[in-house]
Amino acid sequence: MLYALMCKDKPGALDTRMAARPDHVEFLKDLDAKGVLKMAGPLLGDDEKPIGSLVIIAAGSKAEAAAIAAKDPYAVAGLFDSVEIRAFNWVFKNPEA
């Protein structure tokens, strides 16, 4: 099952995001190497600066997706104000379909 991790940054946390970014990128590369990561990228505000993250992963359950999300260096650094996890059905432009 695919899960969408919709993560909203705390207000004024751009410095936290940038400091944790190298570890976050390595974390995503590791998920990709394991076949877990399907896509990821920052959510942007009206000023086109990052205000959150959207990460699509494969996991066996919502609980497993939550455990993966909790290990993200952004989460560990306290960047996120909220994290919403939803089952996701990738229908269009899915390279695996």
From TrEMBL:
Transmembrane segments: none annotated. InterPro entries: Dimeric_a/b-barrel, Sec-metab_biosynth-assoc, YCII. It comes from the Bacteria. Gene3D superfamilies: Dimeric alpha+beta barrel. Residues 1-89 form the YCII-related domain. Belongs to the YciI family. This is YCII-related domain-containing protein.
